[in-house]
Amino acid sequence: MPDETLVALILQGDSGAFAPLVERHKRGIVNFLYGTVRSTEDANDLAQETFIRAYSHLGTFNPQLAKFSTWLYQIARNAARTHLGKERRRPQSEELFEDETLEQRLPDTRREASPDAMILADEEQRAVRAALLSVPERMRTALSLRYYRHMEYQEIADTMNVSLGNVKTLIHRGKAALARALGRERGARERSTTQEVGGRELLCL
Amino acid sequence: MNCSACEARLAAYLDGELSARDAQAIEAHMNSCASCRVLVNDLRAVEIKLQGLRGVEPRPGFDVAVMAAIAALPVPKPARLRLRWFVAYVAAAWAVLITLTVARVIDWQHAFAAVAIELGKVAAAGSTVLGVGLRLHLTTFVGAGIGIEMLVLLVGAFALRRFYPQMRGWFAGAPA
Ligand SMILES: [Zn+2]
Asked: B38 C-alpha to center of ligand 1: Å?
């Protein structure tokens, strides 16, 4: 049953028709949010908030203006923005990505992911995610929709309410910003290693 | 090709959207330019890293938690219903107005007359200002006329601000 039919059922009073919508979109929403926030926990919390918000505002959804999924991702994006705004005002937590425990290392079941794409080692995974957080929100959203949610450019354009050309530019600039952030981090790591080695040599003397 | 032209087309080049000729031009530039070569290699490396990102699974019990949360919420109603309430509100407002009019609580004739008198006063004041402006035109150069008028009016308005309450009487004739 298409999303929009289920929405119509809910608006007629059948709130149980929301269950298939959650089941259908939860994986995509959680993954999109995972690409824009710090942890799996935050991504899951925000995804649940997204669905609850969507349900309570379902009356304002206009199927003539957008697909249900597009509307849902717009809600998720707003939730992530609000969350990051709050986080910025609070002091930064030190425990960066510490929640990536063994249980969460599930096999990759993404259908659209190309089978020969190499999954990065944990260390590198963390480095890319940390660098992603330093990329401006619009670029990060575009990158997350592309690489965590595997959306086509046109779908990203609809979700972000920008033109196709804009999406391409955002993704390209986002990658350039990511490359710079990763370069900075690598530089910092190399510096700290040389200092450590220097210190050890001093101790030997 | 220079570096900025190369950078401008790099996204299209990496997406494979350039014609064979344009792509060759980019490659020729990269062969001779170390910084653009580094940039392209960095972007390719980032692309590979992005494709290698691992997704996550929603936490167990995700659906149950959402469905429990929405069970406590009122069933959403289409926004059209709100439009219906708006229509009802407007109809009710009109009904009240008509009732008050029929009951002679609101006297429209007097209300309109009062508004008309105020508008007439504004019009009379405007025509006096216009008359002063036209007379000044005859004695000044056409080019400077408007500027001087404005200045005179502003200075005059400022200097005579104390007499405004009395002036209302001169312009509008007898007080209403
Ligand atoms: Zn160059």
From this structure: 9
Q: pLDDT digit string (tens) for B3-17? A: 999 988 898 999 888
How many separate helices (H) and strands (E) can be counted in chain B?
A: 8, 0
Rounded distance between C-alpha atoms, residue A62 and residue A7, angstroms: 10
For residue A147, what pLDDT is reported?
95
Query: For residue B147, which of B133, B158, B135, B159 has the smallest C-alpha distance?
Result: B133
Using the beta-carbon criterion (under 8 Å), do B62 and A128 form an inter-chain contact? no
CB A42 within 8 A of CB A87: no
* CA-based nearest distance A36→chain B, Å: 12
Backbone conformation region of residue A39, classed left if phi is above 0, alpha if psi is from -120 to 50, else beta: beta
For residue A198, the model assigns a pLDDT of 52
Separation of alpha carbons A14 and A29, rounded Å: 23
Report, as an integer, the average pLDDT of A141-146.
97
Cβ separation of B62 and A11 shorter than 8 Å?
no
Q: How many CB atoms lie within 10 A of CB A172?
A: 19
- Determine whether the interchain pair A55/B45 forms a contact, defined as Cβ–Cβ distance below 8 Å: no
The residue among B132 and A71 whose pLDDT is bigger is A71
Contacts with B81 (C-beta within 8 Å, 6 or more apart), sequence order: A59
Domains and their CATH numbers in chain A: 1-92 (1.10.1740.10), 135-205 (1.10.10.10)
Per-residue buried b or exposed e for A76-104, using 16+ beta carbons within 10 Å of the residue's own CB: bbebbeebbeeeeeeeeeeeeeeebeeee
Question: Which residues in chain A (63-102) have CB-CB distances under 8 A to chain B?
Answer: none
Distances (CA, A) of A44 to A47, A57, A129, B100, B160: 5, 20, 17, 58, 71
To test the contact with chain B by mutation, choose from A10, A25, A40, A48 the residue with the greatest count of B C-beta atoms within 10 A, namely: A48
**Interface membership of A17 toward B (CB under 8 Å):** no
Give contacts of A10 with chain B, Cβ < 8 Å.
75-76
Q: What is the mean pLDDT of residues A194-198?
A: 57
pLDDT digits (tens, 9 = 90+) for B88-121: 888 999 999 889 888 888 788 888 888 999 999 9
